[in-house]
């Protein structure tokens, strides 16, 4: 018996090595081997505030652990999401940040590799695990940094949330904790967002948002959820500044400067888009754009917007700049145009009022004069 076992193990091992070299299609054969090799996982989870520590173990013998490289494949997916996360780990645990998710499905399998060749020796079946957190009553949390020092966060309260909850938020940045300065409330007086200003952001240091849902009725501590943001990735830039238009021969050249930013202001970080009336939006990396026209167009407006692209992944475009109008031969700023329009309107209005008043005034004066004359007569 003692000498039979090693032989059979060897046979099985060599079979497995061959098999994995080719493919894993031999599913039925694999099962037998798994049984014979007695790989069995156990999964459990412990909650630590908003983090869940998912742990697992197996019944590999000490000898096997010493002899082979042991790796684990972890696949997990939060409830109501579509993206699976897959990781190959050597540790027997994984910290999962729940954020605003109400749980996840996970599965783990163990793989043994030969130490020298790194060939797969054997692997276990998947062991599945479901973690269900207490109900989360908020969703669609999003935060944005704008105008250098302003910070907005908004969220929705789910319809199934109890009537007595209220939501509080604070954030930690560079080691300090700040409470929300001004809550945005919905019609039912629930906090659904927060506006903060005069914040000095360290672009590369995380902002850790803490959202706490408290039940006002029973005065419990409430449940806290956390989400971390890298400031630069949620910055909405102001529109480009100092936009000017010049006419060169038969082309228009638009110039601009990047807006101020909390992060890197290197030229190559910015991506611009130029929009000229009735034309396709174009992407531009330079601080100017030359637009040739063949037929002089009557009038068109140019606008520019910007975001960070190369240095940092940021999806948020700035607003479009105020349109700069391009006429045949000269350019007129819309501000000037509307200002002059307003001025003339005000002027006209004033004139009318003045005329009216004056007319009535004259009337009053004449009647007064008549009265005076009448009085003098007496
Ligand atoms: C590992 O677990 C499986 C399933 O529970 C069991 O059949 C096998 O005997 C165990 N092996 C060892 C070495 O404990
Ligand atoms: C939670 O995690 C913190 C930090 O890692 C640790 O100090 C604490 O002991 C953990 N608590 C529990 C209950 O595991
Ligand atoms: C989210 O997932 C959970 C668990 O899979 C399910 O019970 C629930 O109905 C889902 N909710 C929505 C809104 O899809
Ligand atoms: C909020 O999130 C839910 C589910 O996550 C989604 O179905 C819905 O469209 C989102 N609403 C908004 C306004 O983004
Ligand atoms: C942007 O910030 C500047 C300086 O902090 C302030 O004067 C200006 O009003 C802000 N603009 C907006 C639209 O909030
Ligand atoms: C931030 O919130 C304020 C007040 O709710 C709103 O006026 C402003 O448009 C928001 N800014 C951004 C960039 O979302
Ligand atoms: C998050 O905020 C809640 C409510 O203010 C607080 O009780 C909790 O300790 C905060 N969490 C952290 C990690 O600071
Ligand atoms: C407070 O009420 C909520 C639901 O209304 C319940 O889930 C929670 O356990 C209660 N907490 C305490 C400390 O009683
Ligand atoms: C923008 O224009 C103003 C006024 O013409 C000037 O003072 C400022 O230096 C310009 N800014 C940049 C970045 O060129
Ligand atoms: C205008 O066009 C002429 C000839 O096509 C060229 O020589 C000249 O350099 C151009 N001027 C500018 C400012 O581009
Ligand atoms: C312009 O850049 C954006 C952002 O990178 C990209 O999604 C879009 O496809 C680009 N458009 C063109 C016409 O290249």
UniProtKB/TrEMBL annotation:
One Pfam family matching this protein: IL6Ra-bind
Topology in membrane: Single-pass type I membrane protein
Membrane-spanning segments: 334-355
Cellular component annotations (GO), alphabetically ordered: external side of plasma membrane
Ranges where the Type I cytokine receptor cytokine-binding domain occurs: 140-232
Location relative to the cell: Membrane
Span of the signal peptide: 1-22
SUPFAM superfamilies on file: Fibronectin type III (SSF49265)
Chief location bin: membrane
Lyase listed as a keyword: no
Keyword Acyltransferase: no
InterPro entries: FN3_dom, FN3_sf, Ig-like_fold, TypeI_recpt_CBD
Keyword tags: Glycoprotein, Membrane, Receptor, Signal, Transmembrane, Transmembrane helix
Any GO MF annotation of the entry: cytokine receptor activity
PANTHER family (UniProt xref): CYTOKINE RECEPTOR, INTERLEUKIN 5 RECEPTOR SUBUNIT ALPHA
Name of the protein described by the UniProt record: Interleukin-5 receptor subunit alpha-like
Species this chain originates from: Cyanistes caeruleus
Higher taxonomy: Eukaryota, Metazoa, Chordata, Craniata, Vertebrata
Gene name of the record: LOC111944534
